[in-house]
């Protein structure tokens, strides 16, 4: 079963967009529960996640389970037509577990063991944790596999959010096993890690430790492999628990990813995880003080769609208004909840869920907004929740359709992990920021982009942008070369193609040739030295200026589209264009400002056979995305600006149910979904 099966189940055979939240009835007296389901029906809620942080109440002591209250909740929800995403509650062991098995708690890089009192207080490689989580999952699966409210299974919650990486003894044992499987011999490991440097050669597997705190910089290849291992160790936990659920039930199984938001995705390689999900789901929260957080949302949604291989996915969590964990937790403006939700829907989500249903009265998240705020029904938030439920129901016919994208952005997890390690030329070389900048450039041009890996089949895209692909495998480099030679248009940025999969410089120690080693011939450039810029510094280019980074180099077969005009790199190419086979490869050796982008990006789009739509220039705050299915298309228009926007479009606007008659006005802050004629 997948997301399409879920939406059909929610609609009784006709697809319906999932709408709801995390529901934590255990936080409230029983007399509130009936009131909750009445409100859910008013808001048209059809799916809630239950039991995510309920381990302590479900298993008050080892091996003794208390399911009575959960039986009552699931029965009540089913009686009111509300389906359940049931968690196996493995995310946070109870205090009794940590007390009984103290070495199951994670250890930080300084060797300090954590304890309970927050959440996720467990080490992923702890055999006691894995055994207890499996036992709890088995008990829940056997009891509820056939419950009529069950629509899907929710394993754990936000893996790695608070307890990774773990540097404890269980991780030490697991890391060595992982390395043995990867390298087979110590000779292979020593070669991959370059241990001749700093006298780090290993002669026994027992000498290898997790990269705990040391006197100075730890071998980056060691750190990179530990990141891979840490992700894989959590994936083992997920797969073990998911297998138990699948053995008892055919309902879809998922766990909630964390996207780019807050940088929390770093411990997990979701590209490896996504194929193990029946439904890919994601959590996303706005950074409230970011004035372009709607574009960050669009990027996170596009990335989630990439993990889902363009299949419909589920937004498992976002917020109705303010969160509780930012320095300044700014409430959402009127209409912002609707816009946020329809952005996710436009970019491939077939379900819109929140954390959480009712704002908590106690605990660390009591100031986190909910669908039912502390002030109750007579509030902006509740009125907008009801409005959103009606709008999503009206737009439910888009369920099962897919997003149409002509461009792709390459984002490899290994490349990100490696680029974020220490001892690099500049702290300004940040892969996620570079990714966001190029996504924003396409976003402002009205171009929808998928997120893909360097090894994916890219032939369907007219344009591929690879921002800061610092680490690249031989297969990835060859795939991008084939894409260009087959007629594609590729744009690579600075600090790309620098190291191999082990974080070793790609070079010929005899012949030389310079950077970017993996792409030097494809790009037709040779870069001999990096010249990172000072904080706030900019260098004049032929048009506009470049920030953060510059390079000393030359073209071989490429033409220089733009050059540095002063400084130590004066005369060197800043932007180049090279024809290779039937395609074109651009190289951007700096972070161009708006003027520089405006000078060369239209040429890139022209090479790719793309044209910025008219609305991109006339209404720059209007976001337009298209979804398609079996010959039918739907146009989503979301106005983030303060003035009304207009589109020439013919069809039926679904939220209002009215024909557009060739033209559509989207009011400031408004949303429209048009089934195209």
What does this structure look like?
The structure is a single chain. This protein has three domains: 46-279, TIM Barrel (Alpha-Beta Barrel); 407-609, Class I glutamine amidotransferase (GATase) domain (Rossmann fold); 621-676, Golgi alpha-mannosidase II (Immunoglobulin-like). It has 19 helices and 29 strands. It is globular, with a radius of gyration of 26 Å. It is an alpha/beta fold.
Throw out a few tags for this protein.
3 domains, Immunoglobulin-like, TIM Barrel, 677 residues, 29 strands, alpha/beta, 19 helices, Rossmann fold, seven-stranded mixed β-sheet, nine-stranded parallel β-sheet, single chain
Task: Enumerate the spans where pLDDT stays under 50 for 5 or more consecutive residues.
Answer: none
Sheet with the most strands?
9 strands, parallel
* Overall structural domain count: 3
> Which shape, going by the Cα principal axes?
globular
Summarize the structure.
With 677 residues, the protein is α/β, with parallel strands linked by helices. The chain has 19 helices and 29 strands.
Give the arrangement of secondary structure elements.
Blueprint: H1 3-10, E1 18-23, H2 30-43, E2 47-50, H3 55-58, H4 68-79, E3 83-87, H5 95-100, H6 127-144, E4 150-154, H7 169-183, H8 186-193, H9 220-248, E5 253-254, E6 256-257, H10 270-273, E7 281-283, H11 293-307, E8 313-317, H12 336-346, E9 349-354, H13 380-394, E10 402-403, E11 407-410, H14 413-419, H15 431-444, E12 449-452, E13 463-466, H16 474-485, E14 489-493, H17 520-523, E15 525-530, E16 538-540, E17 545-547, E18 551-555, E19 559-563, E20 573-580, E21 583-588, E22 591-592, H18 594-607, H19 614-618, E23 622-629, E24 632-639, E25 645-647, E26 651-653, E27 658-659, E28 664-666, E29 671-676
Parallel strand pairs: 1-2, 1-9, 2-3, 3-4, 4-5, 6-7, 7-8, 8-9, 11-12, 11-13, 13-14, 14-21
Antiparallel strand pairs: 10-23, 15-18, 16-17, 17-22, 19-20, 20-21, 23-24, 24-29, 25-28, 26-27, 26-29
Helix pairs in contact: 6-9, 7-9, 12-13
């Amino acid at each position: 079963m997948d997301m399409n099966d879920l939406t059909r189940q929610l609609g009784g055979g006709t697809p319906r967009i999932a709408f709801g939240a995390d529901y934590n009835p255990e936080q409230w007296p029983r007399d509130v529960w009936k009131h909750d389901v009445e409100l859910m029906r008013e808001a048209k809620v059809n799916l809630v996640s239950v039991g995510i942080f309920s381990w302590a109440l479900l298993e008050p002591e080892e091996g003794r389970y208390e399911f009575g209250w959960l039986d009552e909740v699931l029965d009540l929800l089913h009686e009111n037509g509300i389906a359940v995403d049931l968690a196996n509650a493995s995310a946070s062991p109870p205090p009794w577990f940590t007390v009984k098995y103290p070495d199951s708690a994670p250890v930080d890089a300084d060797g300090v063991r954590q304890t309970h009192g927050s959440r996720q207080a467990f080490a992923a490689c702890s055999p006691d944790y894995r055994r207890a989580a499996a036992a709890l999952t088995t008990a829940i699966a056997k009891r509820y596999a056939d419950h009529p409210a069950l629509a899907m299974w929710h394993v754990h919650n936000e893996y790695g959010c608070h307890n990774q990486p773990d540097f404890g003894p269980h991780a030490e044992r697991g890391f060595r096993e992982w390395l043995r499987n990867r390298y087979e011999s110590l000779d292979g490991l020593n070669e991959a890690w370059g241990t001749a440097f700093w006298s780090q050669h290993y002669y026994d597997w027992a000498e290898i430790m997790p990269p705990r705190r040391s006197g100075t910089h730890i071998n980056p290849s060691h750190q990179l492999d530990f990141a891979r291992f840490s992700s894989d160790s959590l994936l083992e936990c997920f797969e073990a628990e998911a297998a138990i659920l699948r053995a008892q039930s055919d309902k879809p199984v998922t766990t909630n990813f964390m996207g780019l938001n807050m940088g929390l995705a770093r411990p997990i390689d979701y590209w490896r995880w996504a194929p193990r999900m029946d439904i890919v789901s994601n959590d996303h929260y706005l950074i409230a003080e970011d004035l372009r957080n709607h574009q960050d949302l669009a990027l996170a949604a596009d990335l989630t769609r990439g993990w889902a291989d363009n299949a419909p996915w589920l937004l498992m969590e976002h917020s109705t208004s303010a969160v509780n964990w930012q320095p300044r937790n700014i409430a959402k403006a009127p209409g912002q909840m609707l816009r946020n939700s329809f952005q996710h829907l436009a970019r491939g989500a077939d379900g819109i869920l929140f954390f959480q249903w009712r704002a908590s009265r106690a605990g660390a998240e009591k100031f986190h907004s909910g669908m039912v705020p502390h002030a109750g029904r007579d509030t902006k938030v509740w009125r907008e929740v009801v409005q959103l439920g009606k709008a999503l129901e009206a737009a439910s016919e888009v369920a099962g359709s897919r997003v149409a994208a002509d461009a792709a952005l390459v984002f490899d997890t290994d490349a990100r992990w490696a680029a974020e390690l220490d001892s690099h030329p500049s702290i300004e070389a940040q892969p996620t920021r570079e990714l966001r900048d190029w996504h924003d450039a396409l976003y402002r041009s009205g171009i929808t982009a998928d997120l893909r890996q360097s090894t994916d089949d890219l032939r369907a895209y007219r344009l591929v942008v690879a921002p800061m692909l610092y680490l690249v495998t031989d297969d990835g480099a060859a795939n991008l070369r084939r894409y260009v030679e087959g007629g594609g248009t590729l744009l690579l940025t600075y600090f790309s193609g620098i190291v191999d999969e082990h974080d070793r410089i790609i070079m010929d120690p005899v012949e030389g040739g310079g950077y970017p080693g993996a792409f030097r011939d494809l790009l037709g450039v040779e870069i001999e030295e990096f010249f990172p810029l000072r904080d706030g510094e900019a260098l004049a280019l032929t048009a506009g200026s470049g920030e953060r980074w510059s390079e000393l180099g030359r073209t071989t077969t490429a033409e220089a589209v733009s050059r540095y005009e002063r400084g130590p790199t004066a005369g060197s190419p800043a932007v180049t264009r090279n024809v290779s086979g039937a395609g074109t490869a651009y190289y951007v050796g700096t972070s161009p400002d708006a003027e520089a982008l405006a000078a060369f990006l239209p040429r890139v789009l022209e090479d790719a056979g793309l044209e910025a739509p008219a609305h991109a220039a006339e209404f720059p705050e209007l976001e337009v995305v298209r979804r398609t299915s079996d010959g039918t298309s739907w146009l989503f228009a979301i106005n983030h600006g303060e003035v009304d926007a207009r589109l020439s479009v013919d069809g039926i606007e679904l939220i209002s149910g009215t024909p557009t008659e060739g033209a559509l006005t989207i009011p400031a802050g408004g949303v429209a979904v048009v089934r195209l004629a």
